[in-house]
Amino acid sequence: MTLLDGKTTSNQIKDEITEAIAKRKAEGKKIPHLAAVLVGSDGASMTYVNSKVKSCERVGFRSTLVKLDASITEETLLNEIKKLNTDDDIDGFIVQLPLPKHIDDQKVIMAVHPDKDVDGFHPMNVGKMALNLPTFLSATPYGILELLERYKVETSGKHVVVIGRSHIVGEPMSILLAQKRRYGNATVTLTHSRTKNLKEITLQADMIVAALGIPEFLTGDMVKEGVVIIDVGITRVDDPSKPRGYRLAGDVHFESVSKKASYITPVPGGVGPMTIAMLLKNTLLACENKD
């Protein structure tokens, strides 16, 4: 069993980006500038945004954090997005989800200019992704593809089962892996909460992408020998034995599934770090598109 180490791989990608930025500096070119919009003070969101800002510093990007109160109106947030859209110095920006309940996520995603949408969530970029045209790929699916490529995990002709149909991971992942691309050409089954006989389906899978947000849902009796496991989930589970009172669990029951897997991503340290690395890659691309 081989661990698909997202932490090490993301650090390699960050080193490559750092070199590219040093070269841009030497050539007198613009340094990429990423902005992050954080609405409210959700603990997980603040952690994610802070790690994105630190990653920017590490690779030599400029970064701006726009912090807004949870009680702001939707109109105020949309005006902030307009400012970022028209600011030539900002190459790309993200609006950290989830947003407070009184704000329409979809309206906010639609408001981000596709050329600055380094999260790859805008319908124009999703459409280009579906048609296999050059665009910003959503950072988590992009990170998974990169991990498979760097570990040379064969996908061509394999049966991949994706569990979860979110717009952020499940659906784009199923499209990308089915496409005619170097790490694609798979036969993909997209499953979800209404799927019947899920265990029968997962037992046929050469690869499983678990992205449903239920801790330790996929167990050893649901997978076959030699399966490749990509665990996208990360949930805080109460655990009094831990110093913080909780532990982080993925959607996969690691102990039982890892005994059968040929490759598996750990949680934490698997898909999560890759997501941030690919966000940086997208931001560099956004900046290069303006050269």
Protein described:
Helices cover 40% and strands 16% of the residues. It is an alpha/beta fold and 291 residues long. The protein has 2 domains: 27-113, Rossmann fold; 139-272, NAD(P)-binding Rossmann-like Domain (Rossmann fold). A 6-stranded parallel sheet has the order 1-11-8-7-5-6. It has a 3-stranded parallel sheet with strand order 3-2-4, with helices on one face. α7 (170-178) links the parallel β5 and β6 (187-191). α6 crosses α10 (271-288). The protein starts with a strand and ends with a helix.
- Structural class determined from secondary elements: alpha/beta
Rg is 19 Å
> Do you know the CATH architecture of the largest domain?
3-Layer(aba) Sandwich
Q: Give the count of helical stretches.
A: 10
- What are the secondary-structure elements, in order, as H or E? EHEHEHEHHHEHEHEEEEHEH
Total strands: 11
* Residues in β-strands, percent: 15-25%
